[in-house]
């Protein structure tokens, strides 16, 4: 049976849940799909499907972000739920860079916790401009304490440059909505209405040349290699010629799908799978970029503004100096880099500093690109490219 084609009837936005471990991100994500599937505009994705992504695990691909899709009356959303352990931070930066808005999940019982603050900070760093707050577990929270938690969250958001006094804060119970309790089903609908209202349809760079950071790849025997990811800009169609930067090859797109459905045109913001003609197995990897030929030039050197996480936010305990060589996560790539601090200086955890970076390997660079700095398996900093420098 031919697959049903994806038809674009509503604006598409990318959102996601963030927040402290165990505050209920995955439960709320499942609850949203449940409530909308009961209304007929989505497919219920149960908790354990979101948390484990079983097919991906079976294919041996490391998936640390799972996507679900759903529709409200006015929008089509792709929603990412990220695992809530300390490794979350890397995913915030590599995965959340494409979020148009985020749902900050804060447990009404526990209030603002260290990772709540860290995720807001990183959302800011990677350019997530719009946040809606879900005060979750409202079924279990004392209403007066919940009022205090709301004040605390608004203050935190204001301190990080978000309109903390005005943005929507909705009291929900993911667990209650998942259980079909009318009060909490309504609360989830109220949360979605708040997202519809508060997160604007972003200006998409549809006219820009096509660019897709590769998140995952798989080989379909006899057909070729498939790459998946969110289109960062431009559009893509079957028959388009594309370059794979990192693999240094050019090929043609022979298949295009979103969530398993063929589509006529992939646009900036869409999550797509591209079938690439004649690309050898293992030639293409996560971290590479598929782009319109000649539209981007990989580089190795750039100037950046960086925030070094303080020890309390999981950062280093000791200073960094010129010559420090951590890993840089840019888009989906993970590359070693050498830093030079101004005046041969030293920077402390908690500092915001300007630096120049020389990567061990060229990747497509441009001003405004966000990145994470990691060392020994943990995130120690986050930054933004301010200027690309000649090699
Ligand atoms: N009372 C109550 N408990 C909830 C609610 N939502 C989630 N929980 C419980 O809180 C615990 C954590 O929920 P998860 O959805 O796994 O939280 P998470 O934020 O996705 O956790 P990580 O992915 O590990 O960061 C589970 O035991 C849930 O059943 C809620 O609305 N009310
Ligand atoms: Mg979770």
UniProtKB/TrEMBL annotation:
It catalyses: GTP + H2O = GDP + phosphate + H(+). Mg(2+) binds at residue 26. It is found in: Cytoplasm. It comes from the Bacteria. GTP binds at residues 19-26, 81-85, 136-139. Monomer. Belongs to the TRAFAC class translation factor GTPase superfamily. Classic translation factor GTPase family. EF-Tu/EF-1A subfamily. This is Elongation factor Tu.
């Amino acid at each position: 049976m031919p697959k049903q084609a994806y038809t674009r009837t509503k604006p598409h936005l990318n959102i996601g849940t963030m927040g402290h471990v165990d505050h209920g991100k995955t439960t709320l994500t499942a609850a949203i799909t449940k409530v909308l599937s009961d209304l007929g505009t989505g497919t219920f994705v149960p908790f354990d499907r979101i948390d484990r992504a079983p097919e991906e695990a079976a294919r041996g691909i490391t998936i640390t972000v799972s996507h679900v899709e759903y529709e409200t009356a006015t929008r089509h959303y792709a929603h990412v739920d990220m695992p809530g352990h300390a490794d979350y931070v890397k995913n915030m930066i590599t995965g959340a860079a494409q979020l148009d808005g985020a749902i900050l999940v804060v447990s009404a019982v526990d209030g603002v916790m260290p990772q709540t603050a860290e995720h807001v900070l990183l959302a800011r760093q990677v350019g997530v401009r719009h946040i809606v707050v879900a005060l979750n577990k409202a079924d279990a929270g004392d209403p007066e304490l919940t009022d205090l938690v709301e004040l605390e969250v608004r203050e935190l958001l204001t301190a990080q440059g978000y309109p903390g006094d005005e943005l929507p804060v909705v009291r929900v119970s993911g667990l209650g909505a998942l259980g079909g309790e009318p009060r909490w089903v309504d609360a989830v609908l109220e949360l979605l209405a708040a997202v519809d209202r508060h997160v604007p349809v972003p200006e998409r760079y549809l006219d820009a040349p096509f660019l897709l950071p590769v998140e995952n790849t798989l080989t379909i025997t006899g057909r070729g290699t498939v790459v998946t990811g969110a289109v960062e800009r431009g559009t893509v169609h079957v028959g388009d010629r594309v370059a794979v930067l990192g693999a240094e090859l050019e090929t043609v797109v022979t298949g295009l799908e979103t969530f398993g459905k063929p589509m006529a045109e992939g646009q900036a913001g869409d999550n797509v799978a591209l079938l690439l003609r004649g690309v050898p197995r293992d030639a293409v990897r996560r971290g590479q970029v598929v782009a319109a030929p000649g539209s981007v030039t990989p580089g190795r050197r750039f100037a950046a503004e960086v925030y070094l996480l303080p020890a309390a936010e999981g950062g280093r305990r000791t200073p960094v100096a010129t010559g420090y060589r951590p890993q840089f996560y840019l888009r989906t790539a993970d590359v070693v880099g050498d830093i030079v601090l101004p005046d041969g200086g030293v920077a402390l955890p908690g500092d915001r500093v300007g630096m120049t970076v020389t990567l061990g390997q060229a990747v497509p660079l441009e001003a405004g690109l966000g990145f994470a700095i990691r060392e020994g398996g943990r995130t120690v900093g986050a930054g933004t490219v301010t200027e690309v420098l000649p090699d």
